[in-house]
Amino acid sequence: MRLLLASALCVFLSSSLLAQLQLNGAGATFPYVLYSKWFDVYKKKTGIQFNYQSIGSGGGIKQITDGTVDFGASDGPMTDEQLALARQKRGTDILHIPTTLGAVVIAYNLSLPKPLQLTPDVLADIFLGVIKRWDDRRIAAINPGISLPSKPIVVVHRSDGSGTTAIFTDYLCKISNYWKQRYGQGTSVSWPKGTLGAKGNEGVAGQIKQTSGSIGYVELAYAEQNNLPYAAIKNYAGEFILPSLSEVTRAAESMLGTIPEDLRASITNAPRGYPIAGFTWLLVPRKQSNRAKGKALVDFLRWALTEGQAYCADLHYAPLPKSVAERALKKVALIELP
Questions:
Q1: Does the structure show a pLDDT above 80 at 10?
Q2: Residue 265 φ/ψ, nearest 5 degrees
Q3: Does domain 103-258 have CATH number 3.40.190.10?
């Protein structure tokens, strides 16, 4: 009898501790819509609480490096230099666990009868400030039958460290040598003069929505939420492609053979599909310092990479290809508990 009571008490205490457990994370705004759903569903399922600060990928990388959160989040993978710094500070490697795929769309504030079409060279020159007006002959030439307004183009970009920026500038570097040499790729770059900065995907979407003649880049879910039109982009195969989950998946599947062992992959300018797409990752220390939190995080990651994928499509994210999810689960298995 005493043994049964003791066992029941252990189960009760264990459940109570689990229900009070909180995992702290920070980083990317790109997947925030999906992560919010996951955290809510998983809390109802397990009692585990999440405190996630959507501060941008740059902030997520900094906080996981400094050890102020249990996990970081980024749409731009950490560089070799950043990984080395984190290893020096934390005494452990940081694993990149891909969670979903998304499209970075080129949203704009114009009233047009059909979606704007943009070629890589025209898109790059808009963001470089070479093309300054909407009725420029180069934009008109690839949009026959559309009467373009005679108004200036207002370029909107992220002002904070951003994985969405990392994906977009990665694409620009692949299609424009001048952009690559002058501005480069990263979570934060020095933008051409005369552009507007806004914080977070939500900030860029809001700035575009309230600024007539503006254009900028946001994750697909934010464009949909704000009813912003977005452009069809000419891809590597020469097709004008509107961003969609199927086209993001097509892009990823065409690049599966190039994904490295550490899963820090770029899929921009893919041979097929929508050309401005990318993975987003959770950044997790391989060696955990707290057993309870570490186990809770491992269990959550396993759930997110399996059952959690079913929530992606309804929120405008593409589920991971099966082979990538399987490789991600193998990375999760490397996490060491004290």
A1: no
A2: -110, 145
A3: yes
